[in-house]
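ok new one. same drill as before - structure tokens go in, u give me an amino acid for every spot. 341 of them this time. try not to just spam alanines like last time pls lmao
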């Protein structure tokens, strides 16, 4: 069985998406661009809610604009402080939670995206931007980047979770939803039973995009899934020990049917954390030294109706995160092999 897992990993990781000059593979360069298409046939009929799927936290935050206004997701006190140019530079260090672009994340194997959006003060049009303290790229640009990848990889499925909206009225929501329709068209999967969401069914209907919309507007559009279908409990802690305990507890409480489940394997800085590591930023202060321990927890997990489903992380390229999560699906293959013995 170990030989089978190694062979499947070699097949899935046989190319490098973005070669570096040294010719060696880093975790961000190993190409998992078609990992769903490469899963063994018996997993094609399993609900996606039973598979292990890698995701990213604040997926869009690989770039934020220091020159733009501070986002409406920040307090008035922060907005006043941000009039000092140095403050925005420091904010950037704590707003950025990813190194890879959407395309690079997709090539690395990420299939769930945590999305927070906002209008921008002073904009005359209805343009919507990604937001995490500071404004990121236009949502439209991100959607087009994802759609381009999906067109080239027609058997890959993505989860786009729009879970925070700021400074958006009805007109903004209608504009955003129209952009989603324009970007993905017939790739959009209409809402239906979670248990019917198998790779086989999605491939047959050529659906590739599940949109989750944490706002009542989802009721008006058949391709918007309600946020309650993808709960993502948040530990809100700086302690790895407390995080792992929280992840274990929330997994034990997971509903066996009717929804997906996101395990947010992330640490959240407190005010004092930021004060102590002000110049170092999120990556150097909190993530870099704790991510290996979080990955060790991931390696002990198993997918299934009561196991892990979607697992998210900050800076998914710092360790072999996506491949580690994807390989958990090999345990489902092992179960089948053991049952035949």
């Amino acid at each position: 069985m170990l030989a089978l897992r190694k062979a499947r990993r070699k097949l899935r990781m046989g190319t490098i998406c973005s070669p570096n000059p040294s010719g060696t593979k880093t975790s961000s360069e190993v190409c998992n661009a078609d990992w769903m298409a490469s899963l063994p046939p018996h997993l094609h009929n399993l609900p996606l809610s039973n598979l292990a799927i890698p995701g990213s936290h604040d997926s869009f935050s690989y770039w934020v604009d220091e020159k733009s206004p501070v986002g409406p997701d920040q307090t008035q006190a922060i907005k006043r402080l941000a009039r000092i140019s140095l403050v925005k530079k420091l904010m950037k260090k704590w707003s950025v939670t990813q190194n890879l672009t959407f395309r690079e994340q997709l090539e690395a194997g990420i299939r769930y995206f945590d999305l927070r959006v906002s209008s921008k003060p002073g904009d005359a049009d209805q343009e919507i931007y990604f937001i995490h303290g500071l404004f990121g790229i236009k949502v439209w640009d991100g959607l087009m980047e994802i759609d381009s990848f999906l067109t080239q990889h027609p058997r890959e499925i993505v989860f786009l979770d729009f879970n925070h909206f700021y400074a958006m009225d009805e007109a903004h929501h209608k504009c955003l939803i129209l952009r989603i329709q324009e970007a993905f068209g017939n790739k959009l999967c209409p809402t239906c039973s979670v248990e019917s969401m198998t790779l086989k069914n999605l491939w047959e209907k050529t659906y590739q995009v599940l949109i989750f919309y944490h706002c009542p507007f989802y009721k008006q559009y058949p391709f918007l899934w309600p946020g309650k279908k993808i709960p993502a409990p948040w530990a809100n802690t700086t302690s790895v020990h407390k995080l792992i305990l929280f992840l274990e507890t929330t997994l034990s409480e997971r509903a066996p049917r009717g929804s997906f489940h996101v395990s947010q394997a992330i640490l959240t800085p407190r005010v004092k954390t930021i004060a102590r590591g002000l110049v170092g930023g999120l990556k150097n202060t909190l993530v870099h030294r704790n991510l290996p321990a979080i990955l060790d927890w991931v390696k002990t997990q198993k997918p299934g109706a009561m196991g892990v489903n979607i697992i998210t992380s900050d800076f998914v390229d710092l360790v072999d995160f996506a491949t580690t999560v994807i390989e958990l699906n090999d345990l489902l293959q092992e179960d089948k092999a053991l049952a035949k013995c």
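The chain has one domain: 51-339. and btw The beta strands are 53-56, 112-119, 128-132, 134-138, 158-166, 209-213, 224-226, 262-264, 310-313.
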